[in-house]
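Project channel, design review

CF: Before we commit to the Tolumonas auensis constructs, I'd like one complete example in the thread so the newer folks can see what an input/output pair looks like. Taking Water Stress and Hypersensitive response domain protein.
RD: sounds good, go ahead.
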Amino acid sequence: MLKWCRYVLAGVALTLAGCAALQPKLETPTVAVNSVKVLPGQGLNMRFLIGLHVQNPNAIPLPIRGVNYTVALSGQQVVSGNSQNQPTIPAHGEQDVEIEAVADLMNGLSLANALLSNPLQQEVPYAVKASVDVGAFLPNIPVWKNGTVNLATGAIR
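CF: and here is what came back for Water Stress and Hypersensitive response domain protein:
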């Protein structure tokens, strides 16, 4: 009986070692924020379109399983959420990914009140933080960008 258990354990160990050897060595993709646009609102909700540029240095395609994000305007967090159903980045390729985010009512009202107190202010500071899950045994990729956004045109700097 003991001899049989040794054979089973040796077989399991060899199988696990073989699977580990078949795993490709993956490099972490590069993710950058390339745009933040203020979209026309729906009712009292503020909407944003966050553009990410993803570069995949690997020989296999990488599916983006999800993106967790927060957006702050004028130092106030107005949006946080998670986006699913993103594209697969081709092997040795790159692709732009867009995430539509909607501010919740309370944060939107607080920001609108702050912006209405200074109606001449066209440029507003923003900060985007995201964490991109590409699966494939890689850790989430942190992304961060800040600058200013023109409320009239949506242009960022």
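RD: helpful, thanks. The domain at 26-150 is CATH 2.60.40.10 (Immunoglobulin-like).
CF: Strands lie at 30-42, 45-55, 62-63, 66-73, 76-83, 88-89, 94-102, 123-133, 141-150.
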